[in-house]
Amino acid sequence: MATFSQSTIEKGSDMIQDFLCSTCEDKKLDNTADFYCESCVKFYCRTCIGMHSQWFTKHAPYGRGAMKK
Hints:
Helix content is 22%, strand content 25%. It is an alpha+beta fold.
């Protein structure tokens, strides 16, 4: 499903887990995801979300701030 690209821990802060873009990962690229589509159950970077939004106009992907949903 999702792959963790890295974990960032700063002094006094919570751990932040970054996910890889599902489409880029299939192409062996390590781009951090900025969006999540609940309908597709996939993560997308800023580049790939444009094409996803063109193909799947009724999907409503979450931005990085809402990924905990």
